[in-house]
Write a structure and sequence with these properties.
Organism: Sphingobium boeckii
Strand content: 15-25%
CATH class: Alpha Beta
Number of strands: 6
Low-confidence stretches: none
CATH architecture: 2-Layer Sandwich
Mean pLDDT: 91
Number of domains: 1
Protein name: Thymidylate synthase
Number of helices: 11
Amino acid sequence: MTIDAQPVTLEADNLSLGWGKVLERLTRRGVTSITPLTLTITGFNDDGVAAEVPEIRTAVEAFLETQDKRDSENVAWTIFPQNYWDLAQGDREYFFELYTESFQRVQDFNPRNNKRGSYFQRLVDLYGEGKGPNQLKWMLDDWDAHPKARRTSKFQATTFDPHRDYTSQSLLEFPCLQQVSFVHHGDTLGMNAFYASQQIARKAYGNYLGLARLGAFMAGQMGLRFTRLTIFVGLAQMDVGKTDPDLQTLLAVVRRELKTTGDLVAA
């Protein structure tokens, strides 16, 4: 039976365990990719903060450091700049202004990594340089203005711009995240994220952190509880060799914690 490049659906009530399940699947013999992957994460607290396993998080950061890659907080920042939101102290208009103005300086300081923008930048200033549109602001303002006309399909935002992103370059890391959407039900909010492809070992943990924080922000502004994050990935793939010693060290921790919680499923 073919097990490579097959669809997989996973669920977890903990961000670390959800990511760990994906990593463990990809490191099985005969598997080089999952296509597509659907991962649903729940277990958020009343403030929308994702549950994590400290041992896995510590192992992830150690792995990224030995691989000389950006840590999870750095990756998460590209999707939701938590430190800017903390500085804004709950004022979302100031938050958007602060980020938009600051990101232009970030681009000037490090154009190599930021010349194409970041995910959050495209959500709040799609065309860059303050030209807009601010998709998150539009959704939140519309939510506030039309309490009885909340058509679900309008609560979506894109990070993909055909004018800039259709390119013949053989390698292009940004944007892999294409779109996010939000679904409200009663007093709860769920968020969906759509990836064309995703690097699981080096990027996905930070991706999931950033997405969870974005969902929590949106839920808080809408007066809802953030309860579910679902990630759809067209092609989930391993971005480091399976025999890499750093990966093996990380995988040992992941498998141990999955086994402890009963989430390790036999191949």
